[in-house]
Amino acid sequence: MATATVDPARRKRVLKVIVFSLLLDLISFTFILPLFPSLLEFYRNAETVDASESQSPTLLASVLNYLNTYKASFARPIDSRYDIVLLGGALGSLFSLLQAIASPVIGHMSDRYGRRTALLASMTGNIISVLLWVMAVDFRTFLLSRIVGGLSEGNVQLAMAIATDISDDSTRGSTMALIGVCFSVAFTFGPALGAWLSTIAMIKTNPFAAAAGFSLFLIVAETIYLYLYLPETLPASTAKEAATKDSKKTEFGKATTAAVATASEPVHVRTNSHFMLNAVHFVFLLFFSGMEFSLPFMTYDLFGYTSAKNGRLLGFVGLVASILQGGVTRRLPPLTSVRIGIVACQVAFIMLGSLTTVGSLYLAAACLATTSATVVTGLNALSSFEAHSGERGGKLGILRSWGQVGRGLGPILFTSVYWWAGREVAYGAGAMGMSVVLLLSVFGLKSPPRADRSKTKAQ
Q1: Which structural domain, as residue segments, surrounds residue 323?
Q2: Counting CB atoms within 10 angstroms of each CB, which of 80, 88, 208, 216 has the fewest?
Q3: Within a domain: residue 318?
């Protein structure tokens, strides 16, 4: 089945807008990642003083009490230095679960009202979220900023929906890989920039105001840029505009959006069920996110790694992933990309369960970089092939929602096994989980004929 040819000049123009805006968004988003321990420690220390002057415990004190109860359930003692790390993980899980709720809504909204409208609405929520962070002199305000951000963040899924709107079969894989490159670049440089900005003291009651303020500047600049330069890409909307123009030239031209969509949209034949794609995404991220969250604990236990050394390790992963996405992933059929990434992740799990040297750690990190560069990008491309233009936003939103549920639950479940049964058992279970994901991808998924033909044509 052929798809409509996309004007190369328009594709290049829109892609430039999306890549630049997504870089701004992701760099702003990653500012806070290395700051979580210091942020939460600042609020804990500040509210400890407030609690001594008040009869009722603060919100943060109550959360930490629940956390200590959770820690006490493990057979192995957990060092108190991990309190803040666990709290940061809990906030990360909360953000992911809120994304699981919001993503389908944002996706369906983009199918109904247009990508541009949905993206600008999402940006409004992001501005409010970061503004609350700028004003956050206590934990309650900071928590509210994360809740608002979790419910409004839709830039990534909408960027992917726009990427599919402006791509035909022969360019879709490379376009989706370019979105992945934005992730890798942002996660390579954003955390370092955020850490540096946190050293600039501006407001005594909020020592992280400089990082938050610059993040707000980037988000506002991104919103203005999108408002000025991003056109609507939803095929039904663009077809309606074209039909309106044509109707003015003909006496009997009374085309409607539905009529145009019916005429221009061929019957869509699906190769894979969305349920299977969603299930693979969920199970993969359930194990992968748990392993990601456990890395700082493992590197500290084995090698005494500090935050700076963990930052260099993650920077290495981001750099390798960006190189792979730019040079390899975009040339592979999506399903091949997914399977390669799952195997690489399985190898990483096996290595992490038994490694004893820093060299082995970085070799496992290279495997994780391969996974980061392939699996999610490939699943998004597959999902886009299985949806027609009028439902892509919703389908990609649901795919992201399932993934965010896995990302929200993974850290809690994986670290529980890590502390109850030890490193070897935890990573061994992760390797078995990846075996299940691999079997699902081999026997439950097929490569869409259009994806294979487009890659052959491109080569």
Answers
A1: 8-48+70-234+270-458
A2: 80
A3: yes
Alpha-carbon distance of 70 to 408, in angstroms, equals: 17
**Length reported for the chain:** 459
Tell me the C-alpha distance between 166 and 341, whole Å. 26
Neighbour count for residue 443 (Cβ, 10 Å): 9
pLDDT of 124 > 70? The answer is yes
DSSP string computed for 200-251: S--BTTBTTHHHHHHHHHHHHHHHHHHHHHPPP--HHHHHHHHHHHHHTTST
Report DSSP letters for 332-344, one per residue: S-HHHHHHHHHHH
Structure tokens at 441: 């991808």
- On whether residue 243 sits in a domain, the answer given is no
**Percent of the chain whose pLDDT exceeds 90:** 46
Q: Which of 238, 209, 214, 34 is CA-nearest to residue 137?
A: 209
Is residue 205 a contact partner of residue 219, using CB atoms and an 8 Å limit?
Answer: no
SS3 of the chain: helix, strand, coil, percent, to 5: 80, 0, 20
Residue 294's domain is classified under what CATH number?
A: 1.20.1250.20
Judge whether residue 212 has pLDDT over 90: yes
Cβ neighbourhood burial of 1 (10 Å; 0-12, 13-18, 19+): exposed
Q: What does the alpha-carbon distance between residue 211 and residue 217 come to, in Å, rounded to a whole number?
A: 10
Please check whether residue 252 lies inside any domain of the structure. Answer: no
Task: Write down the pTM of the prediction.
Answer: 0.83
Residue 448: strand, helix, or coil: coil
Query: Residue 47 corresponds to which tokens in the numbers above?
Result: 């509210």
pLDDT classification of 247: cutoffs 50, 70, 90: low
Token pair in block for residue 2: 């052929």
If one counts the domains in the chain, the total is: 1
Within-domain flag for 2: no
